[in-house]
Specification:
Layout lengths: L5 E5 L4 H10 L3 E7 L3 H4 L7 E5 L8 H9 L2 E3 L3 H6 L2 H6 L11 H5 L1 H10 L7 E2 L9 E4 L10 E3 L2 H13 L10 E4 L4 E10 L4 E14 H4 L4 H6 L8 E8 L7 H18 L6 E9 L5 E7 L14 H7 L5 H14 L3 H4 L2
Helix pairs in contact: 1-13
The chain binds adenosine monophosphate (AMP).
Amino acid sequence: MAEPVSVATLGSHCALQVLKGASDEGLRTVLVCEKRRERLYKRFPFIDDMITVDSFREILAEPCQDRLRESNAVLIPHGTLIAQMNSDEIESIRTPVFGNKWILRWESDRSMKEELMRRADLRMPDPIATPEDIDGAAIVKRQGAAGGKGYFIAASADDYSAKRDTLVKSGTISADEPLYIQRYASGVLAYLQFFYSPLRGDIEFFGADQRHESDIEGLARVPAKEQLAGGVSDVPSFNVIGNTPIVLRESLLEEAYAMGERFVSASRDAVPPGMNGPFCIEGVYDEDAKFTAFEFSARIVAGTNIYMDGSPYYSLLYGEPMSMGRRIAREIRQASEAGRLGDVTT
Ligand code: AMP
């Protein structure tokens, strides 16, 4: 008889939540763990097996894939997988990946990302083609899942050049790195977290969070007069340090669901089988409560870690402690019981 299905992930990002959720659903759990983090993860009793590696990139090699195959594992992709491997590498993984591994390329590539968001009819900040076109606050971003480190705000072409030079000199970005420029959207940050269930054929709104980013937030604590007097960095970064919950006005829920539904439907056309599993639409609400989306993540986001015991909206839908990790595991368990694992993995 084949091994029962198990849940595997890389030891970082949201691994604890994912594996605890799998364990709560009665599934075996496997952690691919870097040697240097073994001591940390051994503290948690719900991790059944550890595959110890020197680097996460070993997940691409035969021995690691063999062990995952022996465990009949489904791999849950998260931000660390995307940050450390390119799209070709991710697509070459033979272990079944939860959700749609093909859509991760659309998350990593800035122009594909923009296209999918446009097709989903999400309101976006205007992209700015060249530094010379900057005429007002613009945010300058790096490619891929850089986590906001090395991003900066520029107000003009000269400002852009000066700040870019500073970051190249400090080694934060490389001189030949192509940067992406977008109009700065101001408002209340909200990262909207969803789950699309291919088994139910429906979308669920899980919750929302805000990211705390350093040192753009630190700057907000320094009065303008002192900022102008100098002594604080004039290239604050957007490096994510942690997340906190935000609960939306109930009147905003309908539009949140509508955005999620449009994203799922556009993804189905653009990159079959579509946006299955967890995803996040990231942006700001302006003074008219209109949402502008500057990003999406086509997999679980670390912001769901704030709801390890269940989110407010999932307590309404499920009436039991349901984290995003557990929701993923439930979909896997139900698919496995129905002989439909192929419908929830790629
Ligand atoms: P991202 O990698 O696009 O998620 O961006 C990292 C962080 O930069 C976000 O969490 C926001 O704080 C900020 N950010 C990105 N794009 C914009 C934008 N167009 N306007 C304002 N802030 C932005």
